[in-house]
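User:
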Amino acid sequence: MNGLDIHTGVQTAFILTLVLGLMSLLLGIRTIRAGAKLQFFRKRHDRMVQGWRMVVVGAVFGFMSFLMNTYAEPIAYRVYPPSPTITLTPTVTLTPTVSVTPTITLTPTITNTPSVTNTPSMPQEVESKFESTITPAAVPVFSPLIFATELDDETFQPVNPGNEFANPVGKMYGVFSYDQMTVGAQWTALWYRNGELVYYESVPWSWGTGGYGYTEWEPTPDQWHTGTYEVQIFVGNQWVEEASGVFVVTGDPPTPAPTMTPSHTPSATFTIGPSPTRTMTPSPTVTLTLTVTRTLKPSLTPTVTMTRRPTFTNTVTLTPRPTNTIRPTDTRRPTLTSEPPHK
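Assistant: Predicted structure:
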């Protein structure tokens, strides 16, 4: 298992489960067809049940292979962060056609050692802005930079990488893998165009000791001039030679849209707008309280004083009708007791 990485292991498991699923599915179909030809019900039933079980097992294996191919590798990378693998993939291999072997080698007596070396160094204006004072505990290991204009958010892998890009470029990523990094150490990415520093980022390292990382630059579209761009990675003041990379931008950059801000200077002379405070001086509009003084409508309370209608209690005082008890008082008729004297 020393030469087997996570990607290879996931692909192997995916192929095995897929093959097992297909075999189970085929065997199940053959068993069902063979069982259907049997005459005895018991044997036919057992053979059919066995065949359908194999079909179900094949479907389970197929579902497992789908899950492995889709989710196994991202989950494995979350549990076991990937260790950087330095793969030197040269894009251009110069194969000389004719090798001229000199017959006489002149050994120079004086060797001119150049006083100025081409080793990249940290610019003073960038070094003066360092925030971290932590020195790396070990020499970090970086892979060569891979350039792309898009990046996968889950695996941090470049999408459609290359070394030559045509305008308009947009955002550029320089992706790399790393190991043995010291958390908190200052790291810097310098972006050069034709040998001139055009952009840099320098912050304390906070990504961990190993995994994948990237540096990015997104200038305005008109700043992607045609030329050769080089990105250099530094850890502290130490240049990481393996993490350098070069890419080329071709085509003319888009011209920026003309801004109308210079022509808007007359807008500042529009102080006439605030000055007409005369619109505020017509305070007579406030004196239109005459509309408020029109309380004459509420003052028409005489309509409320029309309580004379309820005062018509004279209709209730007509109690003389119940007092007409004169009719019941006619008890004189029963008092005709003058009949006994006739005896």
